[in-house]
Design goal:
The protein is mainly α. It is built from 16 helices and four strands. The longest helix has about 30 residues.
């Protein structure tokens, strides 16, 4: 045990003396979590501008306009004609326009179909999607009100008129992300990726510096010629530090950004621990193939976005190409995110995600075996060359 602590103390001294490692392993996780997280602090969009052209100018068309303006999502920008509304959209002043045709009220009162047109700028996905959803709800609500008024005038009571207005009553209840906001969906995964990338880059760079400074033999001597103790001693530091970060994110950052943890904290701690161990082992393995610390930073700094894309978080795993699915299965991030999101957002447990937990453990054991073989090769090569 003393040998493992000697390796651990050596790693602590190494990180504390190297400003770049200290920055990325101890300061970057906190800074990035708050900086990137703050972008989605409000989680959803509000008051998205849409131009409105009302060629009818009647009581019902004004009611429709008022209902649009009363929603938190839409801010109505009046326009005198379609050409003006189109010009505003092309300039980016509004994200679309809504057109109420003439004879709108007349058609409704004469029981004819009345049409409205909504044109949205779909080059930005979130505003167009949110606007379309809100516009649809408002139109359906106003349409239902008009139908109910008509049935009331036919002598029906309110209950009977309501049944005729909505013969099929849909009970719509979105689960887990009740506000249907992008921030609630993205923030948990974003914080996990920040945790992973700072750990991956920092640990890989720390081991690459061992080769850069020709210290592998000294490390081997410190471990009493035991590769398993090298791995265990190095891993202990990062597991302790990043478990603290994981707990900090779960308590402080989630609270600040309004993210609710619906699952068990112990389950979350276990999956965090397995993930940190697997990523640390993978990082040391990756770092062993680099001869300089700078090269690690240059290469791995570009890995964040590709990893995020292929894990099945931003896009369903089933929709990914088969080759990409295979690459995704080789990353600890994929089974971790499945379990992590299930616990945080859905209130799941480890037993509910047993396949993903086993997947993560198997990857860790494979990385561990490969790392032992790789370090043994490097030590042998260094000894021969010296």
């Amino acid at each position: 045990m003393k040998v493992i602590f000697d390796v651990l103390k050596r790693e602590v001294r190494k990180v504390s003396k190297d400003s770049s490692l200290f920055l990325i392993l101890l300061l970057a996780p906190i800074l990035y979590a708050f900086i990137y997280g703050s972008i989605y602090f409000n989680k959803g969009e509000e008051k998205v501008k849409i131009a409105l052209v009302d060629d009818d100018g009647t009581a019902i068309s004004r009611l429709l306009t008022q209902q649009f303006d009363a929603t938190p999502m839409i801010e109505i920008i009046p326009s005198s004609n379609l050409s003006e509304a189109k010009e505003k959209m092309y300039r980016g002043d509004v994200q679309g326009y809504f057109y109420i045709q003439s004879d709108f009220e007349k058609n409704i009162l004469s029981q004819k179909q009345a049409n409205v047109n909504v044109v949205l700028n779909a080059s930005r996905f979130l505003p167009s999607s949110d606007l379309l959803s809100t516009v649809t709800k408002v139109c359906l609500t106003v349409g239902a009100g008009v139908r109910k008024t008509y049935f009331n005038k036919q002598g029906m009571g309110d209950d009977e008129a309501m049944k005729m207005t909505n013969p099929i009553n849909m009970d719509y209840r979105p689960l887990y992300n009740s506000g249907m906001t992008y921030g609630d969906f993205l923030l948990p995964g974003l914080l996990a990726i920040i945790l992973q990338q700072t750990l991956l880059i920092g640990v890989a760079a720390a081991f690459a510096s061992e080769r850069e400074e020709n210290l592998l033999n000294k490390l081997y001597e410190t471990s009493k010629a035991n590769i398993s103790k090298i791995i265990l001693g190095k891993t202990m530091l990062y597991v302790v530090v990043f478990m603290i970060f994981g707990i900090f994110f779960s308590i402080v950052n989630f609270s600040v950004f309004g993210v609710q943890i619906r699952g068990n904290y112990w389950d979350l701690a276990v999956i965090y621990a397995l993930f940190v161990i697997a990523i640390t082992t993978l990082a040391i393995l990756i770092g062993s193939f680099f001869k300089t610390k700078l090269l690690v930073f240059q290469v791995l700094v570009f890995s964040s976005y590709p990893i995020f894309l292929i894990t099945g978080y931003s896009m369903p795993y089933q929709a990914l190409p088969k080759l990409v699915q295979g690459l995704s299965d080789l990353l600890p991030t994929s089974p971790f995110l499945k379990t992590y999101i299930s616990i945080v957002q859905s209130g799941g447990s480890l037993s509910d995600n047993l396949n993903s937990v086993i997947h993560l453990i198997v990857l860790w054991l494979i990385f561990e075996l490969l790392l032992i073989v790789r370090i043994r090769y490097l030590i042998t090569k260094t000894t021969i060359s010296s």
